[in-house]
Amino acid sequence: MVAAMCGHSEITALMLDHGADIFQLDKLKNSGLHLAAFSGSSTIASQLLRAHDDSFRLFITNLPQRCGECYEHLLQKTYEIIMKSKLRDNERRRYHLSWLFESVQWLHNKLFGNGGDNTRICKMPAPQKSFMDYLVSRFHKKLPKRGIHDELAANSGNEREEEEGGTDDELARRRKEGDPADWLSLSEMSFFLDTYLREMYKHLPNLQGRTALHVACDENLVCTHERVIQCLAEKHGCSPFLQDHSSKTPLQLLLACRGRPGSPKGDANLEEEILQKRVERVRVKELRLEEERVAHRRRVWQDEVNRLAHNFNDLDTLNRMRKLVKENDGTPVARGKGWDTYEEPQSHNRLFENTRSGFVQRQVPAQLVEEGRARLGWKEKMETNARFVERHRLRPEWELHRVNGTDVYFFFNRETEHCQWISPDGLPVREWRTKRFFENAEQLEDELDQASLVVQFSGIASAAIVDNAVKGRTLGNWRECQGFGGVTFYLHALDHRVVVEKPDEVILHEGYRYAHALIYERSEEIEPHDRGWHRYYDPQTSHTFYFNELSGDCVHDTFATKTFIHEIRRPKRQARFALTTEELRRRKEEQEWKSALQRARRHEESLKTAEERNNMATEQQKREKEELENVLRQLESSVTGEHLTIDGDDDTRAEMETGNNTKEIKKSKRRTNTKGRSLAYIDARFRREREVFLKARENHLLTSIDPARKDPRREIERCEEIEHDLNEEELENAKQEDTNAKPAIRERRRVCRILTRTEERFRLGRAPCRWGCELWLPREFSLEEHERVECPRRLMICRLGCNVVMERRQWREVIYDHESEEEEKCSSRIVYCPRECGIWLPHFDLAVPHMRDLCVRRPVGDLRCRLGCGQVYQGGAHELLALEQTRLAHELDDCDLRKVICTWPKCNAVILAKDRNAHRRVHLLSSGILSFVTAEVHEYKVPRDVKLLKFQAWGAGGVVDFCVAKQ
């Protein structure tokens, strides 16, 4: 702490290398980071923050080896244990916002409370509720991927309107449960707990409630602490929104007039006005950029719609749509004048098919246009120029009307809304009180007042035409309506024209609806809503839109206003009227029946939901299995491509000789990959890497990869674009604000812009990379993608499974040197059996069990002759069968202690092989045969009864035989 306060960065680095405690506090609860900020040393502040972040990341990475479970599993375990302790067994499993501090206390005790680990991060102080409250106030209701209820709850006015409706039980439940957004999901709870543990150190308060950023801003004179403020705020993401015990933010402390020598006095109101102008400029720029973004998205969407609607009127499209509508229902919505009218199921566009020729068209046929105009003309004549006379006594659906100012009558059918001059067939004439009407066509032709017989539609949207018409689709400036007699006409919203045929604008927008239906078919549903609306995601354009399955309307997300979203997310409200006692009793009884039916329906829906959940789980498992198989195939391809070439030497012995020779050669500073490995090496390496990869995947860890593989840079480039915009904004602000003649005020404003720039990043939902690469990325999607596949500082475990953990950029330099079989750095390196049995395996399996139990060339025990002659046979395990056969052959044919049968006639004695000569000599002696091998006098006693003796003499180059008779 003294080194930090005095600014001795070398001493601080030395002490950190020897395990100095970064959480040590003085009597005023100032940490080393506070003192580094006090001294203005950005180097020491960066050293302390890096030491904390590196220790925490390394601790989390090594957690599976320490505790047997990974960090994510501990977060899930915390979620379940806190819910179990807070909720009864019969309550729905959910997590409330107020349990976050207890959760972080439990997790802190689980991670750092066992005292057996002396690492630096394990000395982290106990959690403080004030910082958790700050995180809740800062990020609650602003996290991505919130549900519909959370978004509805964010709008208090809408919530207040919704509470007015519903039954008493529902209102009581809402009052008891509170804000639906206060119930957090596992991902939201994990975000709060992880953010707390990672950012608690740099936001530790002292006795004044001030963080290190507060201290640096308070001690700043003009720009003396600019670099440490930039280090804390921009590089490491210290929050500029925290307040001390005096409710002062770092920016307020920076702008405060302290009266110190060299400190600018300034004008607080002027500085506040400058800040407001800066905020206003940022807001105007954001609005402009948002308008450009919306215009671009709308343009891309419209281009896709135009592309799909290009063949809207093609013959193939018309025939395909005719086939579709006939397969869907096959029933025309209207018939008349030789034409059948069909409606497409999704776009609700109308097709007209000729009943005789089968020709299909989208424009209204001329016959139907004339018929429609005539019906609308009758409607105008009946409403504006005629009056009701009487109704038929037997068939009251028929009425008689009289044209005003004349003696001309016509008939009207109220059910079919059909008008005619001549009396209908089959209708008794005597049941009419009026007798002056046309009974046949001749009377109609003989009528003198032909002007009264004219029926012509004016084409103007009069009240007689529009008021009782059913309003339908909106197609540009035209509104599709269904009026008198089932006639479909189109009403212009501006000049109030009414036409029966389809205008060109209507045809154009029907083509758009056709394109919307095609996009709807290929899209994925995201959210269901009320009144037939659903939200969909189009994977080809990456756009979202709302589609109404009942009307076929489509609204792009850029046109979806808050009012529209609110209307489709809550049921349509109905007017309330005062009810009598009987009506209340009937309503209550009806409500009880509805409740019973709803309970039964909920039970059925729960069963159906459980089945769907099981099906979804099965599909999810199937998708995960396919994804895992794909990843393993990529891993196998990567291992093969990294270590195998076409020119590679497949001879294992030659490879080992080459490897042994490299020991004598002077090693280079950085080892490169040795390609041309044998297939046995690649198989052994892939098996090991697959085992380590699966274990790391289960623990949510990353493994080292081929250094030649280039990491993607999409999010990094996006971050660079964002930073470029911020730098341009900084230059613009500096040009407009640094106009004061006093350099001290200009310098202080430049330091102030560092904090406002950080505030802007937080406000836009950006966060610094948790691996420590000092990049700010959008928290919702880009940050996760960058930390997973892009960041050069992401920690990776050895892909062969040893305990070494390094950053991606470090693995690039030393990975082949680390994995080399000649080195002893990796305990899991793939090595070749020194007995040359042809096996490659991890080094930790070499001695035991391979060389001891599994190697085919391992030495086996001495094989001794089982007959006791002392002969010993030695060799490896691969020669065991040959040794056994040799010993067996020896025991059968060569051993002196084997038992043999005497071949002397009529003997058959069993004797040892070594006694066979002596035994044979006995037989020879008993038969009178004797041999002498020395040149001397020998005595031979002739047995009794021998009549003849035979002598043989060897030597002098020949053999002499002769017989001597016994005397």
Automatic annotation (TrEMBL):
Positions of the UniProt region annotated as Disordered: 150-173, 600-672
Residue span, TRAF-type domain: 786-837
Zinc finger feature spans (TRAF-type): 786-837
One of the record's GO molecular function terms: zinc ion binding
Domain WW: 392-426
Lineage: superkingdom: Eukaryota
Biased composition (Basic and acidic residues): 602-630
Entry keywords, A to Z: ANK repeat, Metal-binding, Repeat, Zinc, Zinc-finger
ANK repeat copies, ranges: 1-27
Ranges of Acidic residues composition bias in the record: 160-169
InterPro entries in the record: Ankyrin_rpt (IPR002110), Ankyrin_rpt-contain_sf (IPR036770), WW_dom (IPR001202), Znf_TRAF (IPR001293)
PANTHER family: ANKYRIN REPEAT CONTAINING, ANKYRIN REPEAT DOMAIN-CONTAINING PROTEIN 16
Protein name in the entry: WW domain-containing protein
UniProt lineage: Eukaryota, Sar, Stramenopiles, Oomycota, Peronosporomycetes
